[in-house]
Specification:
Blueprint: H1 6-9, H2 12-16, E1 36-39, H3 40-43, H4 47-59, E2 62-66, H5 71-91, H6 95-98, E3 111-113, E4 130-135, H7 136-139, H8 151-155, H9 157-181, H10 188-191, E5 202-208, E6 220-223, E7 229-234, E8 239-241, E9 257-258, E10 265-270, H11 272-277, E11 287-289, E12 301-308, H12 339-348, H13 358-368
Parallel strand pairs: 1-2
Antiparallel strand pairs: 2-10, 3-4, 4-5, 5-12, 6-11, 7-10, 7-12, 8-9, 8-11
Helix pairs in contact: 4-9, 5-9
Protein name: Fe2OG dioxygenase domain-containing protein
Keywords: Iron, Metal-binding, Oxidoreductase
GO molecular function: metal ion binding; oxidoreductase activity
Length: about 375
């Protein structure tokens, strides 16, 4: 692997020092994903660190980003910490109250998704988490027809707005670095992701309660992210990635590996839109969420996610003007679907599970392509 990974850049003692206090330790006897560990402060001034970002985006599409010792990074960490405090308050409202903000009947993936309402595997099993999608367009005053949301979120609107703006600034920095290495015209990628324009950008606050030890199942099924860049904060393990064969030792099959949460870091991953823009050069890697490992299995797991997606009207196809992005092969046709259509299709496909039999859920999973 061309880029240093978590196991190569720090000793076990240094990595252990990045565990979160007042939580059960992450176990040492589980396979750990070979994520590159990058530094935000270095990205601002170090060409080598920028090369590492590009390498990580091609090899695995996942990497850690150390936000410490950087003023904007420290600010984002502080806002993320406050939003982690907001998560339990949100779910303390109760499922009956939150169900009022489930907008899938209106064809939207924003708002609340209840526990056990999406398919997670080829057996047709249902998810074991609940989450709330907070739309960027609603909270930054962009949407002309905003949805209603719980009063708790409006009361915390300044925090939500600040986090959205600062997370998006980080996304823009990452896009600018990728833009440079792809030899695209200046600002090509950021011009497709303007925060002031209508898009599917959102904050997601996820709650995954402890599972019965005798009935451990996948909390969130294997998938790739639909958009461009995902910024993830979590404190409890459970996220797993399936490395590609190129990162798997010879003679072995790829196996699911845990992404260990690190204090002071976010986890960044690329989504399907970046694959489409670069004709497969950049990677959107498959991942899932399972019950936390070891002693952490007894904890309620909260996650904080910022999904950055292309503007609604952006067509997801190979970008022009680059001598790095592979050309289309002879006879290769692109779908030509815009971002709004693509994100909605992918987000809603496995949500309509009410009154389905297990056999119908299995068939839907197979047809979705998630099982491949």
């Amino acid at each position: 692997m061309a880029t240093e990974t978590i196991t190569q850049t720090a000793s076990p003692a240094q990595i252990d020092s990045l565990e979160f206090p007042n939580l059960p330790p992450f176990p040492s006897n589980v396979p750990i994903a070979p994520l590159h560990r990058l530094s935000l402060s270095k990205l601002r001034r170090d060409a080598t660190e920028s090369e590492r970002l590009f390498s990580a985006s091609k090899d695995l599409g996942f990497f850690y980003l150390d936000l410490r010792q950087d003023a904007e990074g420290e600010r984002l960490l502080d806002e993320a910490d406050k939003l982690f405090g907001l998560g339990p308050q949100l779910y303390d409202l109760g499922r009956e109250e939150l169900q009022k903000y489930d907008y899938k009947s209106l064809g939207s993936y924003m708002g609340y998704k209840g526990f056990g309402s999406a398919i997670v595997d080829e057996q047709g099993n249902l998810d074991r988490n609940e989450f709330y999608n907070i739309p960027k367009d609603d909270f930054l005053g962009i949407s002309k027809t905003p949805f209603a949301h719980p009063r708790l979120l409006y009361d915390n609107a300044p925090l939500i707005q600040d986090y959205m703006r600062h997370a998006h600034a980080l996304v823009s920095l990452i896009l600018d670095h990728l833009n440079t290495h792809l030899h695209l015209p200046p600002h090509t990628l950021t011009s497709l992701h303007r925060q002031t324009e209508i898009s599917g950008d959102q904050i997601r606050i996820v709650k995954s309660p402890p599972q019965p030890p005798s009935d451990l199942k996948t909390a969130l099924g294997k998938h790739t992210d639909f958009g461009s860049i995902t910024i993830l904060f979590n404190r409890i393990g459970g996220l797993q990635i399936l490395p590609p064969p190129s990162l798997t030792p010879p003679g072995r099959e790829p196996e699911w590996t845990y992404v260990k949460p690190l204090q002071g870091h976010c986890i960044v991953n690329l989504g399907d839109a970046m694959v489409k823009f670069t004709n497969g050069l950049l990677r959107s890697n498959i991942h899932r969420v399972v019950s936390p490992p070891g002693e952490q299995a007894s904890e309620t797991r909260y996650s904080l996610v910022y999904f950055a997606r292309p503007e609604d009207e952006v067509v997801l196809k190979r970008l022009e003007g680059s001598d790095v992005i592979p050309p289309l092969q002879e006879g290769q046709e692109e779908e030509g679907m815009n971002s709004k259509e693509w994100i909605k299709l992918q987000a809603m496909r496995l949500r309509n599970t009410q009154r389905m039999t297990p056999e119908e859920r299995k068939k839907l999973w197979e047809e979705s392509g998630r099982g491949t």
